Amino acid sequence: MNATNRTPGASIDIRKASKRYGKFVALRDLDLSIRPGEFMTLLGPSGSGKTTTLNLIAGFTEVSSGSLEIGGKSVLGLPSHKRNIGVVFQHYALFPHMSVGRNVAYPLTLRGIGRAERDGKVRHALEMVKMADFAHRYPNELSGGQQQRVALARALVFDPPLLLMDEPLGALDKKLREWLQLEIKRIHRELGTTFVYVTHDQEEALVLSDRIAVFNGGQVEQIGNGRELYDHPATLFVGRFIGESTVLRGKADIVGGDTVVSIAGTKIVASGKISGHAAPVILLRPERAVLHRPGTGVVDGENRLSGIVEEAIYVGSGSKYDIRLKDGTTAVVRSPLGAPEFAIGDTAEIAFRPGDVTLLADDASADITLT
Amino acid sequence: MSALPQTDNQTAGGRPARRLNLRDAGWLAAPAVLLLAAVLVYPLAIIVLRSFSEPEPGLQNYIWFFGSPVNRAVLQRTFVLSGWVTLASLICAYPYAYAMTVVGKNLRLILILCVLVPFWLSGVVRTLAWVILLQDSGVINSILRGLGLSPVKLIRTQLGVVIGMTQVLLPFMILPIYSVMKGIDTRLLQAARSLGAKPWRAFLQIYVPLSLPGVYAGAIIVFILSLGFYITPALLGGPRSTMLSSLVQNQVLSLLNWGRGGAMGVVLLVATFILLAIAAPLMRQKHTQTRREK
Ligand SMILES: Nc1ncnc2c1ncn2[C@@H]1O[C@H](COP(=O)(O)OP(=O)(O)OP(=O)(O)O)[C@@H](O)[C@H]1O
Ligand SMILES: [Mg+2]
C-alpha cells in the first residue's frame, strides 16, 4: 500500500472483441485501449455493454471473438483468480461471516502472506478508506457507504495493478456519493493504479475520469476527456448523452463551405460541413446561446431563432429557459446572471454564432437509445 | 472521521412504518399456546409425575434405569445410532440441496418433489419398502448375488436401521439446508475469485460457512427425531439394535409400567435439552444477528 514500492498501473488493450449470448450480441467489435495508471470511465445507457466489458477484463466471462491484453500480455483463457485484478461491485459483496478486518485480509491470506505483514497491510488499507476503527465490525453492522469503503480497501490491499469498479456508488444517496467520488479520486492519485470505472451518471464520469469511453449498443462511440466529449462530440449520440443540448433539424444546403439549415422558415448557418451522406443536424449547447427580446441586440452574422418561453427556471448561477420554436422543437438556453430575464409566455430570440454550434450526422437511434 | 458526511451513519433501508406491538399481538399466539398446553405440557407433566410416584414416591424408576447395564447400553446406542443417521443424512442432503439451488427450474421442481413425496407416504409404508429391499432375499442381496458377490446381512442390523432411518429423515435435513443455500448470494463467490481464490477454495471458505446455519438446523432436527424414532428401528432392527423408544414401548404397553416408561422418556428429554443447550451457540452466528441499532 505504500507509495514507494507499489505495482505500477497496468495497460489494457481490447481489440475487435465481441460477446454473444446465443444470438444476442452484447458487444460488437469493441476496441478499447486504456493507458497505465489512467482513470477510465465507461459511460453509457443501460444495456450498452459496460458491465459485460468489465466482466471480460475481470475474467468472469470470456470473449466470443477478439483479443484482450492486460499489461501487454494476452489473458484469454486465464481464470479470474489468476488475473490479480481488484474488483468492486455495486452490491458491495463483502463476506457476511467475516469481520471487516478478515474481509480485507482475505486476499492476503490467499496469497500466503505472513501474519505481521498482513496486519500492517490491512491496517494501511483501512486507513486509506478511513475505516480503521471498524475492523472488528461485521458487514451487516455497517452502512452502505461504509461497506463500499471496506470493499474498496479489500480490492486494493493486495496491490493489484488494475482496479475495476461497476457502479460502486449506485446504491448510495447523492451527498455520500459525491463525497466518495472525491475519496476515490484521491486514492487513485495516491496509488497510480489503473482504474476502470463503470457508471451511467455523466456527472460522476466528468468528476472522476482522465478519459471517458461512451458506450452505445455494445460499441464505444467515442473516447476522450470531458471537454473533448462536450465540445467536440463525434456522434449525435455522444452529443446528446453528455450534457444538455438542443438538436436542430431541417433541410440543409452547403453554401460556400458552410452548412445552411432551414428551421421553421429561418436560415441558420453553421460553420463547416460534415463528410458522408447522412443529413446534417445542428447541436447547440445551452450556454452558447444568448436570449434577446425580439429585434434587439442584433449582431451581423449571428443566427437568430424566434420562439415562446415555455419554462423559466432560476438556477442560482443564472436562469434556464425552455424555448418552443415554431417547428415544435424545444431549445434549452442558459442565461448568466445579469442577462435580460424572461417570463413564461414571452417571445424571445435565440442568438448564436455559426462557429458555436456542432454539425453532426443525423442518427435516429440517438434519440431512441436515450429513453 | 470529521470529513464524513452525516448520511454515513444513517441506517440503510426504511423500517416498516407500522409494526404490531409484540405485547398487543401476544394474544395471536393464544390458540397455539392452548393447544400445546393441552396436548403436550399436560400429558408431559403427568408422565414426569408418574415417573417419580409409581409404584411409590421416590427415585426407584431412575435407579432401576441407570442400574441396568442393558438400559445404559441401549441409551448409548440410541445416541450413537442417531449420530450416524445425522451424519449419513448430512452427507446425502448437502450435495442434494446444493444441486437444487443450481439446476434449472424444471429439474428443481422434480428434485423438490422427490423430497416431498416421502412425506405423503406413511413412515410404516416406507419402512416396509426397506424391509423388502434389505431382507436376506431382498433386492439388494439379489443384485449382489447376481454380480457374483457374497450377500451382506442388512436387515436386523444397525446398518439396516441407519439406512432406513436416514431415508425417512432425509427431507428434514434437505429442506433447512436448501432454504439457507437458496439465500446465499453466489456473487460472493465471484468476488472471492477476483480476490484470488481458486473455485474450490471459494466454495469451502465462503459458501460452506454461509450454509452452516441450515446444516445445524437440519442436524438438530434429524438427531432429535432419531432419538425418539420407533417404527423404523422396530421393523428393520434386531435385538442388537434396539433403541430407547422400543424399551419405552415395552414398559408402557406390554408391562403397563408407566413409572419406568415415564422415567426413560424423561431421561431422553433431558438429554435432548442438554444437547440443544450445547448446539444453540453454534447456531447463533455473529452475522445472523440483527443489525445493531444506532
Ligand atoms: N448472461 C447474459 N445472457 C444474456 N444476455 C446478457 C447476459 N449478460 C448481459 N446480457 C445482455 O447484454 C447486454 C449488455 O449488458 P450489460 O450488463 O453489459 O449492460 P450495462 O451497460 O452494464 O447496463 P447497466 O447500466 O444497466 O448495468 C444487455 O442487453 C444484457 O441484456
Ligand atoms: Mg451494468
UniProtKB/TrEMBL annotation, chain A:
The keyword ATP-binding applies. GO terms for cellular component: ATP-binding cassette (ABC) transporter complex. Signal peptide: none annotated. SMART domains: AAA. It holds the Pfam family ABC_tran. One of its GO terms (biological process) is quaternary ammonium group transport. GO terms for molecular function: ATP binding; ATP hydrolysis activity; transmembrane transporter activity. SUPFAM superfamilies: MOP-like, P-loop containing nucleoside triphosphate hydrolases. Keywords: ATP-binding, Nucleotide-binding, Transport. InterPro entries: AAA+_ATPase, ABC_SmlMolc_Importer, ABC_transporter-like_ATP-bd, ABC_transporter-like_CS, Mo/tungstate-bd_C_term_dom, P-loop_NTPase, Transp-assoc_OB_typ2. Gene3D superfamilies: P-loop containing nucleotide triphosphate hydrolases. Residues 12-242 form the ABC transporter domain. PANTHER family: SPERMIDINE/PUTRESCINE IMPORT ATP-BINDING PROTEIN POTA (PTHR42781), SPERMIDINE_PUTRESCINE IMPORT ATP-BINDING PROTEIN POTA (PTHR42781:SF4). Belongs to the ABC transporter superfamily. This is Putative spermidine/putrescine transport system ATP-binding protein. The lineage of its organism: Bacteria, Pseudomonadati, Pseudomonadota, Alphaproteobacteria, Hyphomicrobiales.
UniProtKB/TrEMBL annotation, chain B:
It holds the Pfam family BPD_transp_1. Belongs to the binding-protein-dependent transport system permease family. CysTW subfamily. It is found in: Cell membrane. GO terms for cellular component: plasma membrane. The chain crosses the membrane at residues 25-49, 79-97, 109-134, 154-181, 202-231, 263-283. This is Putative spermidine/putrescine transport system permease protein. Gene3D superfamilies: MetI-like (1.10.3720.10). It comes from the Bacteria. Residues 75-279 form the ABC transmembrane type-1 domain. SUPFAM superfamilies: MetI-like. GO terms for biological process: transmembrane transport. The keyword Coiled coil does not apply. The keyword Transmembrane helix applies. It is a multi-pass membrane protein. Its main location: membrane. Keywords: Cell membrane, Membrane, Transmembrane, Transmembrane helix, Transport. InterPro entries: MetI-like, MetI-like_sf.
